[in-house]
Amino acid sequence: MTNDTDAQQVPEEGAESTGETAESNLYWRANVRLLMILMAIWAAVSLGAGILFREWLDQFMIGGYPLGFWFAQQGSIYVFIALIFTYAHAMKRLERKYHLED
Predict the structure, then answer these.
(1) Using one digit for the tens of pLDDT, what is the confidence trace for 54-86?
(2) Sodium symporter small subunit domain spans which residues (predicted)?
């Protein structure tokens, strides 16, 4: 008869040689999901706002400049910096959740 704690400590099939556990697999799955979401935002801002939707965005103004131009020159940089801080904050939370804090 086994209990639930024994099942949690058993490595998944094929993971014995690398020492990976089910918890580390969940951590990496969450990490990759976070990266994919942030990369999609990055692509939408850099390609979408700066290139594809530039003409439509140019009807709006920020600081006397068309919004499409502003995103292509400055706005995308601000979004990228915000994504870096978002990633760092989210990774701290993930590491705490999976007990990987320093």
Answers:
(1) 899 899 998 888 988 888 888 889 999 999 999
(2) 26-100
Residue with tokens 């999976």: 98
pTM of the model: 0.68
What's the CA angle centered on 62, arms 47 and 88, to 5 degrees?
55
Q: Are 63 and 70 in contact (CB under 8 A)?
A: yes
Residue that the structure tokens 């390609």 belong to: 47
* The residue to which tokens 């690398």 are assigned: 18
Judge contact between 65 and 54, C-beta under 8 A: no
3-state secondary structure of 5: helix
For 57, counting Cβ atoms within 10 Å of its Cβ (0-12 exposed, 13-18 middle, 19+ buried), the class is: buried
Classify 58 as helix, strand or coil: coil
Average pLDDT, the chain: 82
Strand partners for 61: 66
Token readout for 37 is: 């979401």
